[in-house]
Design goal:
Elements: H1 2-145, E1 148-154, E2 179-183, E3 186-191, E4 199-204, E5 207-209, H2 215-222, H3 224-230, E6 235-241, H4 247-251, H5 272-285, E7 292-302, E8 305-308, E9 321-323, E10 326-327, E11 333-334, E12 341-343, H6 346-357, E13 362-363, E14 371-372, E15 375-387, H7 391-394, H8 398-407, E16 439-450, H9 457-460, H10 465-488, H11 500-504, E17 514-521, H12 528-542
Parallel strand pairs: 1-5, 1-17, 6-16, 6-17
Antiparallel strand pairs: 2-3, 3-4, 7-8, 7-12, 7-15, 8-9, 10-11, 13-14, 15-16
Protein name: KIF25 protein
Organism: Quiscalus mexicanus (Great-tailed grackle)
Subcellular location: Cytoplasm, Cytoskeleton
Length: about 550
């Protein structure tokens, strides 16, 4: 054990020696490692400092170059700024001088504008005065010509004029022309009887149209009357004459065969009714918007009964409905429940008139294959909107103003009527304004009448129902002659109610209304008797003037016709 202890102690001492040696080696290795680390750090620092130095140099060099370039750019910019500043300063000075000049010019323009406004106001006042003078002179001219004017149109000979007349006169040449336009105001008629010398008779009218004059020429003399319509006067234009004398052609124009539609393709052939409507809308277009509106009604007087040709059934189909004409408290004629359609242009008007024409009664006779058996009355009602303050200035003529004041209504309903058919002529208005706005509306009428032709029963050859129609036609024309005769003689009572036709036309015949009678004459020998009757009617109608009293009998269709 002791030996073992000695051995172990010896080994322990050896191990301690080795441990001390290894510890010395480890210490040296650590120092070397630290030295290596330090050397490495120094190497890295050296390398970094070298790169930094190089970068610093490069950056410094680049900065110098950039500074130099920037300095050069700043110098150029400064010089350019100075140049632009000078330019802008010059421009600003020029602009200031220009503004001063413009201000001076503006002041001059303002002075001129003020002077022009005053001049315009003076011119406008003079224009209004001249406008009123023109209206007064126009109406005076119409009155000098006669509130009832008569024009005469002689149609050309037509193929059916070659047909023979009465059986006892077959040897005579009935296609011979006996009526001529001697000049613009004279009709010459050659009257001859077997065994007697020929006698020439002349008739004077305001205008006479020969068989070569166009529809344009006829309407040119009608158009001035339409100005009176917008001046506050009722106007009536009617075609009077025997069957087949060209009344419907004069009033409507040519019609398509088998259809009563207008042949609008030939506008130069349009008659008075479509042309008058065109002129009315042209005149309205020159007025302030919304100050006028137009309603149309189409009726026929058949067998002394009035039929509304625009009335519709529950399905919206147009059919003629019998109406009656009454006299209102104001003494004006009115047709209760008559259909009035609002129209805004000529196309809408022609569409409605065409509908009415399709219901008009026609019947063939020996004189005319499409003889109208009723009087057609197309009425345009023009409503003028007038503010209460401007009512006196719109019509300065005292008599006209007083007359229209009686006719004016003072307030409007509250909403605008739909542009469709209405069943009342007075109950509502197509333009509705607030009830609080005190306004007036003045209604004037343009009645365009295509009268049925007067007939000689022996010439037309009608029998049965057609004969009864002829009787009513001639009675109504006789009533019209009686009314014009009463007006010519200035009777206290004018028999408007003797016929539905004259009752319907009461507001447009006589008084301040303007009436134009277009006599239509057939030139052939066969129609000489009827032509003479028509010319006699026109001669007496011319005598209806203000202040003139004529004590002669008015020619009427004879009872035997």
């Amino acid at each position: 054990k002791d030996e073992r202890i000695v051995v172990l102690e010896t080994e322990n001492a050896v191990l301690h020696l080795k441990l001390a040696e290894y510890q010395g080696l480890a210490g040296r290795s650590t120092k070397e490692v630290l030295q290596l680390y330090a050397a490495h750090d120094q190497q890295m620092q050296f390398q970094r400092s070298s790169v930094v130095t190089q970068l610093h140099g490069a950056i410094k060099k680049r900065l110098k170059q950039d500074l130099k370039s920037l300095h050069s750019f700043a110098l150029e910019l400064s010089k350019d700024f100075q140049r632009q500043s000078k330019t802008c300063l010059y421009q600003l000075l020029a602009a200031v001088q220009g503004l001063q000049l413009q201000n001076e010019a503006m002041q001059m323009f303002q002075i001129k504008a003020f002077d022009l406004e005053q001049s315009l106001q003076e011119v406008t006042e003079r224009y209004e005065k001249e406008k009123q003078k023109r209206k007064a002179l126009h109406n005076s001219l119409i009155e000098l010509r006669g509130n009832i004017r008569v024009h005469c149109r002689i149609r050309p000979l037509l193929p059916f004029d070659d047909a023979a007349g009465h059986s006892q006169d077959r040897q005579r040449n009935f296609s011979e022309k006996v009526a001529y336009a001697a000049d613009d105001e004279t009709v010459l008629v050659k009257c001859s009887r077997p065994g007697h010398a020929s006698v020439n008779k002349t008739f004077q009218f305001e205008r006479v149209y020969n068989d070569l004059e166009s529809q344009d020429a006829v309407f040119a003399d009608v158009a001035p009357l339409l100005t009176s319509l917008l001046d506050g006067y009722n106007v009536c234009i009617m075609a009077y004459g025997q069957t087949g004398s060209g009344k419907t052609y004069t009033m409507l124009g040519p019609q398509l065969e088998g259809n009563l539609a207008f042949a609008i393709e030939e506008e130069s052939e349009l008659g008075i009714i479509p042309r008058a409507t065109q002129e009315v809308f042209r005149l309205i277009s020159e007025k302030p918007p919304g100050s006028y509106w137009v309603e149309v009604s189409v009726v026929e007087v058949y067998n002394n009964e009035i039929f509304d040709l625009l009335a519709k059934d529950t399905c919206g189909k147009v059919f003629g409905v019998k109406r009656d004409v009454v006299t209102t408290r104001e003494g004006k004629s009115d047709v209760p429940l008559l259909t009035h359609e609002t129209v805004e242009n000529v196309s809408e008007f022609l569409h409605l008139v065409n509908k009415g024409l399709q219901l008009r009664v026609t019947h063939p006779t020996l004189v005319h294959a499409h003889s109208s058996r009723s009087h057609l009355v197309v009425t345009l009602t023009i409503t003028t909107v007038v503010f209460g303050d401007n009512f006196g200035t719109l019509w300065e003529d005292e008599q006209t103003s007083q007359r229209l004041n009686k006719e004016a209504s003072f307030t409007f309903p509250q909403k605008m009527r739909d542009n469709k058919s209405t069943s009342s002529s007075r109950a509502s208005s197509p333009v509705q304004l607030e009830a609080t706005e005190k306004m007036k509306q003045v209604k004037t009428r343009l009645q365009l009448v295509d009268l049925a032709g007067s007939e000689c029963v022996g010439l037309s050859g009608v029998t049965g129902a057609a004969l009864r129609e002829t009787s009513f036609i001639n009675r109504s024309l006789s009533a019209l002659a009686d009314v014009l005769g009463a007006i010519a003689e200035q009777r206290a009572h004018v028999p408007y109610r003797n016929s539905k036709l004259t009752h319907l036309l009461q507001d447009s015949v006589g008084g301040d209304a303007k009436l134009l009678v277009m006599l239509c004459i057939s030139p052939g020998q066969k129609y000489l008797t009827e032509s003479m009757q028509s010319l006699g009617f026109g001669t007496r109608a011319r005598q209806v003037q203000r202040g003139q009293v004529k004590k002669k009998n008015f020619p009427v269709p004879s009872k035997g016709k």
